[in-house]
Amino acid sequence: MFASLRATASTVAPGLAAAAATAGTATLVAKALPNRLHISAIPVSIVLGAAAANLGPLAAPSVAAKLKPGLSLATSTVLRAGIVCVGAKLSGAQIMELGWTTVPAAACSVGAGVLLIPRLAAAAGLAP
């Protein structure tokens, strides 16, 4: 069991490290930008990641192949967990500030998103 876990960890570690490095670089770049631009690390990270995803396989195909399992994990499971954590933090703070009447509104919003977004994506011909 531990051997397979170790093998999985060694497979995803390079890609997770690349994702963490991209996020760290994006944070530094965003902090270096003038405050009047109001650009956070999130769009900078998206631009850096998109550039790396498009240029990386052209420049170093073998490196891109080694990063792929960890990047897939980072862009699916880790990203989703982060979104849930941010949403929980925001919802918790808003509930404390606005009261429990915000719970049904939040539940309806999330429910509508869960039901409508997959249907809209299918109508647009996108994969689930």
Helix and strand arrangement:
Elements: H1 2-32, H2 41-59, H3 61-98, H4 102-123
Polypeptide structure, described:
The mean pLDDT is 86. The protein is globular. It is mainly α and 128 residues long. It contains four helices and no strands. The chain has helices spanning 2-32, 41-59, 61-98, 102-123. 86% of the residues lie in helices and 0% in strands.
How would you summarize this macromolecular structure in one to three sentences?
The chain is mainly alpha-helical and 128 residues long.
Largest sheet: none
Q: Mean pLDDT, as a whole number?
A: 86
Distance between the termini: 32 Å
- The percent of residues in helical segments reads over 70%
Give helix and strand order, one letter per element, not per position: HHHH
The computed structural class is: mainly alpha
Radius of gyration: 19 Å
